[in-house]
Predict the 3D structure of the following.
Amino acid sequence: MSRRRPGKNARSPARPRLPIIIAAEVNRRQYVARCCPLAAAAGVSPAMDISQAAALCPQAQVHPWQPDIYQPAIEKLAQWAGRFSPRVMIDPTPHEIDAGFAPAPHGLLIDASGMEHLHGGCRVLLVRIQQALAALGFTARLAAASTIGSAWALAHYGAKPIAYTDAAQLLQALAHLPIAALRLPRAMCESLSTVGIVQIQHLTCIPRISLLERFGPHLLQRMDQSYGRVHEDIAPFTIRPVLSVSQLFDGPVTQLEVILNAARQLVHQLSSQLMDRQRGAETLEVRLARPDHQDNIKKISLVRPVCQPDRIWDILRPSLERMHLGSGVEAIVLKALRTAPVKPRQAEMDHVLPATDAAADDLLQLLDRLINHWGPRCLLMPDPQASHIPECTGRKSPVMNQGDSPASEVNWPPLDRPSILLDPPEPAQCVALQPDHPPHRLGWRGGNYAVISQAGPERIVPYRTLTHRQTRDYFKLQLEDGRWVWVYHAREDGRWFVHGLWG
């Protein structure tokens, strides 16, 4: 068959599609956050270094990661998916490519229980959803199963873009999938792979008590959720109207005082709407509309939901004073983009708040200012973990990711642990009168100190999966200069280390 030459009225050939890569920056290094099927066919995958991805696919277009764009888009898609079932939820599972990467939603969970017959069965429903998404320009992987965990695993790691399994085929369908299909953290998957556990079927051959002792309860919880031993429900997605207040001027205004006074009145109006709904603002947006159509927009993030007008104004005013007015401002628009429920407080008791509550409010106000000045990921705070290994409990995470618990109410482990943990532990020379007894003298950092008080030992046995398997005997020592130090004796090689200090 010969190819016909294009005539005068023939359509011009379509421009070739170029691969697209979405890059995210983590710890001053750029990683692949998302990639299109063309880039994936060239060997590009999420979590890959951007330089390696560029070498594999040099013709790809690299765009920066913009979480603020993906959140409204996934919410609109969840609203659209309500035509298939009223129970639609944005996937809360974080898509981790690095320990410091900000998670973002990347999927939907649809509960079609009891409505399969309306669409001709689950298989027909999956095909209809895929066709509808393709008409919108989306490439999707779909799966239907009796549990949320198994459907998530088949959609992300299954061999087919459309998968369906019933309760009888559930064990067989999940057996050969990688352990990451259980929605496990990246660090846990690496720990499991070091001992040869790379598929889900490998976990089913190990006693549950052994998995609990080695890897903690989170692994068993994810397994039980996937196999249906633990119920996991869908919280239906609901669209909340964006609270917005605005002030329109008679003409362009260039006086900063007038703009600040109008903005403060808008803050009181927005605060009144928030209080009526018993909600607080987590993300604010202020827009200065200018006659040149180059509106100045500023987004403000808050550590905890806030509805008090004075608190909102203290955070909003510095941002307004730094915004460029241009040739004048025609209108001010203030929106609460994200809100969350807040605990009600008696207004007549505000002037007699306990000292602890007042200090907590002052701390949160300081954190809000620092975050909006330096960025949401530049301010870290301790994030204690449920582990008896000291190195595993000293993790830090951004203040914005601490959930609903205030910064002043961190649940610290009920153990006597030093306020300063040395990383790595510093070698020391200790003299003990008897084996397995507290040291009598401590040589550390060029000094030699007498021990006047001690407590211990506390034996800590690490997980079997850790690279450094050392059984440690910890002692709390008070030196002659008054300092308290935390030292341990490695039983395998007999060396001493200082691991922490009490400040």
Summary: Residues 420-502 form one domain. The chain has 14 helices and 19 strands. The first helix runs from residue 37 to 41.
